[in-house]
TrEMBL record:
<keyword id="KW-1133">Transmembrane helix</keyword>
<comment type="function">
    <text>Hydrolyzes acetyl esters in homogalacturonan regions of pectin. In type I primary cell wall, galacturonic acid residues of pectin can be acetylated at the O-2 and O-3 positions. Decreasing the degree of acetylation of pectin gels in vitro alters their physical properties.</text>
</comment>
<protein>
    <recommendedName>
        <fullName>Pectin acetylesterase</fullName>
        <ecNumber>3.1.1.-</ecNumber>
    </recommendedName>
</protein>
<dbReference type="GO" id="GO:0016787">
    <property type="term" value="F:hydrolase activity"/>
</dbReference>
<dbReference type="GO" id="GO:0071555">
    <property type="term" value="P:cell wall organization"/>
</dbReference>
<keyword id="KW-0812">Transmembrane</keyword>
<keyword id="KW-0378">Hydrolase</keyword>
<comment type="similarity">
    <text>Belongs to the pectinacetylesterase family.</text>
</comment>
<keyword id="KW-0134">Cell wall</keyword>
<keyword id="KW-0472">Membrane</keyword>
<dbReference type="InterPro" id="IPR004963">
    <property type="entry name" value="PAE/NOTUM"/>
</dbReference>
<feature type="transmembrane region" description="Helical">
    <location>
        <begin position="26"/>
        <end position="47"/>
    </location>
</feature>
<dbReference type="Pfam" id="PF03283">
    <property type="entry name" value="PAE"/>
</dbReference>
<keyword id="KW-0964">Secreted</keyword>
<keyword id="KW-0961">Cell wall biogenesis/degradation</keyword>
Amino acid sequence: MRAGEEMLVPEHQNCRQSWRWRGGRATTSAVLGLALLVFSGVMFLRFTSPSQDGALNSSDPVLVDLTLVKNAKEKGALCLDGTLPGYHFLKGFDSGADNWLIHLEGGGWCHDLESCNARKYTVYGSSSRMERQVPFTGILSNLPSYNPDFFNWNKVKIRYCDGASFSGDVEETEQNGTTLYFRGERIWKAVMEELLLNGLATAKKALLTGCSAGGLATYIHCDDFKALLPNAETVKCMADGGFFLDVKDISGKSSMHDFYSDVVHLQDVGKMFPNCISRMDAAKCFFPEEITKSISTPVFILNSAYDAWQVKNVLAPGYSDPSNLWASCKLDIKKCNPIQIKILEGFRAALLDDISDVKTKKDWGIFVDSCFVHCQSLRNITWHSPYYQRINNKTIAESTGDWYFDRREVKEIDGPYPCNPTCVNDGF
Ligand SMILES: *[C@@H]1O[C@H](CO)[C@@H](O)[C@H](O)[C@H]1NC(C)=O
Ligand SMILES: *[C@@H]1O[C@H](CO)[C@@H](O)[C@H](O)[C@H]1NC(C)=O
Ligand SMILES: *[C@@H]1O[C@H](CO)[C@@H](O)[C@H](O)[C@H]1NC(C)=O
Ligand SMILES: *[C@@H]1O[C@H](CO)[C@@H](O)[C@H](O)[C@H]1NC(C)=O
């Protein structure tokens, strides 16, 4: 089993930065032992309960109804197609009754009239298409075994239907003969106003979170969120898979920058960053590298250094790879050749460089693993499982809780791939 050995045994010198067992033969065999233990755990699970990888409790997740925002029409806070925006609300209980966790849904962006128009006919552009109920899993779970610190909080999942990370605002709705509402910023405000009236205003503790395009929105709205809750004891933000990098793709083009430039101009997102756009181009201001510089509220950065979505869409988008050399690597990191792995390591280095200032901020948290995945807080297997997705033997749920409740300073940075034997590398 040479391939298996290579996958599980840390080879890089740098692996040590992620595993606290340092030096000597005993520690090496401890790592090896854990790796084998994890490996047999994986095999055991695969063979015994294929449908519930990593489950700590076999209960089904709770299904939560969609609520449409009442006064949204008067406020002009509408989805791309002009329908009302919506959210799913699950009431808190016991010690969590006065605490609120708000999750901003992700789902990419649209960057021109054609792609925004197509989006009107999907759940990401119209509440008429949205599921009436969604399961609450991972950080949204109401079960303590899946979600130890936040299970009993009030929880809200805000649906994403504006195409620009809850940040666009254009008055005009007729765009070259197409009707489109670019109103993400108004949706953010309208949902917050409704939640404030329904109990958020008296929250003791609050956490704004979100994944992917919702993770980017979390960075963008973090200080706004804090400002809405002047009487709360603790307000913090956790952005999952939202640290998009302004790097060149494999053909040398700044394709993500160009894409963001389109999004920002189409939906007039620059208004969100008045200080930034006076210093640099508006597209640059839409990257977390810049946004985080001006956030004063404590933030937890949860991101894979090998973010599967970014590898597919930022680093090696289709047109940057006309001969399809990256096709299998993009789907399965185990199929990447050594040159591709080197390029992925460069991507990782760019992320670590962008967050280097954050490492010195005492009240900020970091969990940067090297697992080939995208959103990690919404799936029970990546959020809190006895086997997977750990750094220093702490799950993402434990690390987020430790940071939120000030139980320890959390600055977890994994060694490079394939150091971490607990990784789920399934690309989702
Ligand atoms: C699963 O969680 C529920 C709710 O917390 C609990 O009542 C039940 O006993 C748990 N089941 C197992 C098998 O742990
Ligand atoms: C945990 O995740 C598995 C796989 O996605 C899913 O089948 C199961 O319903 C989830 N359980 C809970 C309680 O979220
Ligand atoms: C609308 O059409 C004009 C003229 O064809 C074009 O210059 C402009 O870029 C279009 N606007 C958008 C947002 O596509
Ligand atoms: C890792 O943590 C689990 C509890 O989550 C514990 O049972 C296990 O012994 C720990 N392993 C190591 C190597 O510390």
